[in-house]
Structure prediction request, 354 residues.
Amino acid sequence: KGSFAAAVFPSGRGGMSMENWNKRVRRTCVGVLLLALLLRLGGSGPMAAQDAENAAAFFLYLQTGRVAKPTGRTDQPAVTVPTETQPTTVFTFPTAPLEDGPLSFAASDLEGIEIKNGSTYEPDFGALLEAPVSLDFSGEEPRILIIHTHATESYTMEPGWEYTASSDYRTLDPEYNMIRVGEAITRVLEEAGIPVLHDTTLNDYPSYNGSYDRTRENIERYLEQYPSIQMVIDVHRDAVELMEGGQMATSATVNGKPAAQVMFVMGSDEGGLTHPDWQQNLSWALKLQVQMERQYPGLTRPLSLRPERYNEHATPGSVLLEVGTAGDTLQRAILAGEAFAHTLVSVIQGLDLR
Prediction:
C-alpha cells in the first residue's frame, strides 16, 4: 500500500550496501522502462488482464529483486523461495529424546495440556486421545501438504531481519512471511524422509476476503492430483492486540533457545458446513499436542475447538497451526515451527504409521 514512488524508492536504506543499492536502482530503472513499454503496447483484452494480475509480482521485483511465479492459477501469484538469499537460520536441531518403545496415549495425558472449547459440543477428549490412528504416511507419494490461507502474515521486525511491509505485520516477501515458516517445517519433514508438498500461493493477496475459499480450491486440486495426501497443515500466525497497545508475544524455550508458542485451531461442523470427520481431526491434533508438551514443555498454547470448519474437512489429518503471534519475531517462529515438525515426525514414527 502507499504511492508508486514509495514502493519503488522506499525511504532509508536500512544499512544496505552501496552495491546492493546500485543494483536496486538499476533494477528499478529497467522495471520502469518495461512498465512504460507494456502500458504503451497494452490496452484491453486478455493481455491487459494478465498484466493487471501480474502487477503484484512486478512491484515485488522492483522492491526485492525476487520473481513471483504463477502456479497455474490466474487470480493469485505464487512465489518461489530463493533459499540462497535467505538469512542464515541456526535452529536446526535433533529431535528431543523419546521414551523407549512405541508411543502411547492415555486419557490421563490430558492433564498435561489445555483445551479451550469454543463450541457447544462436548466431545470425549479422553476417548479421542486414546483412539487409534488410521492415517498412512508410508510410501513415496506425497503424504503431507503444507499450505497458507494467510500467507502474507508476518512478525515483528528485529535487527538483520527487516522486510518491506505490505501492511501492518504483513509482507509479500516469502523470506519473511508464513511461507518462510512453512519452509522450515518442510525441511524437517523431508530430512526425516516424509514426502511433503509446500504450496506457496498467496491466497490472501491481493484480496483478504475469500482467502479460505481460494485455499480450499487449491487443496482440492492437490488432492485430485495426489490422493495419497493424508494431512493438510494450514500454517498461520496469530495476532493479539494488547489493551495498552502493541502486539502480544508468546514465550517458549526449545533446546535452550527462545521460541514462539504454537496453537492448534480445530474446526467442527457446528457452523453448518459439512465436516463428518472433525472428531478424527481432533483426535490427531490432541496426540500432537500431548507429544509436543512431552518433547518441548511449554511450547503449546491451549488447543482451540471452534464451530468453523477451516477447510479441515479435506483430510482426516488436517490441522490449522498458529505459529506464534504478530508480536513474536520470525526467528522465534522458525524455531517453533521446527519443533512442531520434529514432534510430527516423532508421532508418525512412534505410532508406526510408515
